[in-house]
Amino acid sequence: MMMVKVVVTVMVCVLELVNANKCVIDSSVPDQEKKTQYEYLKTLDPIIGKRSELKLSAKDTYTFVVCDDADPAFKNVSFIWNLGDTDSLLGFNNRTLVTKARNSLMLTFLGAKGLEGKYKKCNGTAGASHILFLCDHQQHKVQLEILEDFHGSLTCSMMFVVRHSCVCSLSNQGLSGGAIFFIILLVIFGSYFTFGFFYLRLVKGAKGVEQIPNREFWFKIGNMLADGCGAVFRCDRYCGARGTGSAPSSYGGYSPIDERLAQDLQDTDRDSSLLNP
Ligand SMILES: *[C@@H]1O[C@H](CO)[C@@H](O)[C@H](O)[C@H]1NC(C)=O
Ligand SMILES: *[C@@H]1O[C@H](CO)[C@@H](O)[C@H](O)[C@H]1NC(C)=O
Ligand SMILES: *[C@@H]1O[C@H](CO)[C@@H](O)[C@H](O)[C@H]1NC(C)=O
Question: 123 C-alpha to center of ligand 3: Å?
Fold first, then answer.
């Protein structure tokens, strides 16, 4: 009963975790592409709702919450820049774009509010903010870093970086079916020999070679393999006349190096005897 309760609780937690992802791909994205982007977004599931604050000064703070609301006062906003008394809403999570590379994932929030009127480079348009997630095996906390702030940027946008281990799952996309099959086979064989070995040794009191389980069978297989290899790969039958034990010829082909040398020496002897009448 207890067990069931625990399992149900865990399942509910997992479901809640998945559901809490408030990032919605922007409606300008075509449906097929949307599906792909939601697939990429799953990379961030382990850190949904994690909060990070970047305090540059007492009156200059960025607050980012991964795909959840950063402040109850602003619905659907994951990223807020507080500068003095004003809040710029940098990241509307209901207008997200997701792009991916081998070791990184980028969230782009469109439709930033609070910049357009204030800054010339925005020229009246809404800005965008980018948050680049990079793989870092050692990093298990969400920590916002600034890469390109608003003043350094040429366009009405900003770029931030979060290094985190969860992004590393992008580069090791699991094992292939073949590899898994091979590993399972290896484990089965390994446990078969280990258990067999201990069974024969401890229960049957076997010693030495006797400890190998089903040894007759395995040695028979060994013999059969050896015979097979002999039949297929041995030179005796397929290498022609040279392979059958006749004297190695001095021309072309393979002959062991010192046999060749002996042959050469003989030839030299013959030549010199021809030269001396
Ligand atoms: C996103 O959420 C905001 C509320 O914060 C709302 O005003 C806006 O219409 C929403 N946009 C979309 C595309 O749903
Ligand atoms: C938040 O965004 C969703 C669409 O993604 C929208 O339906 C909802 O109305 C928004 N919330 C508010 C308070 O505007
Ligand atoms: C600003 O926007 C106006 C139209 O909205 C456009 O004519 C003008 O070229 C833009 N300026 C810059 C620098 O992009």
Answer: 6
Mutate to test the pocket of ligand 3, among 123, 125, 155, 156 (most ligand atoms within 8 A of CB): 123
- The CA-based diameter of the chain, rounded to the nearest angstrom, is 117
The residue with tokens 């095996």 is 137
Q: For residues 246 and 129, which has the higher predicted lDDT (pLDDT)?
A: 129
* Closest ligand 1 atom, residue 27 Cα: 13
Sheet holding 77-83, edge to edge: 51-57, 60-65, 77-83, 86-92
Structural domain boundaries in the chain = 2-170, 176-229
Nearest CA to ligand 1 atom 6: 76
Per-residue pLDDT tens digits for 130-161: 999 999 999 999 999 999 888 888 889 999 99
Higher pLDDT, 177 or 241: 177
* Per-chain mean pLDDT for the chain: 83
Distance CA 228, CA 223 (A): 8
Give the residue from 134, 97, 132 showing the smallest Cα distance to 112: 97
Asked if 167 contacts 40 with a C-beta cutoff of 8 angstroms, the reply is: no
Q: Give me ligand 3 centre to Cα 117, in Å.
A: 13
pTM over 0.85: no
Which architecture does CATH list for 2-170? Distorted Sandwich (2.70)
- By alpha-carbon position, which residue is closest to atom 2 of ligand 1? 76
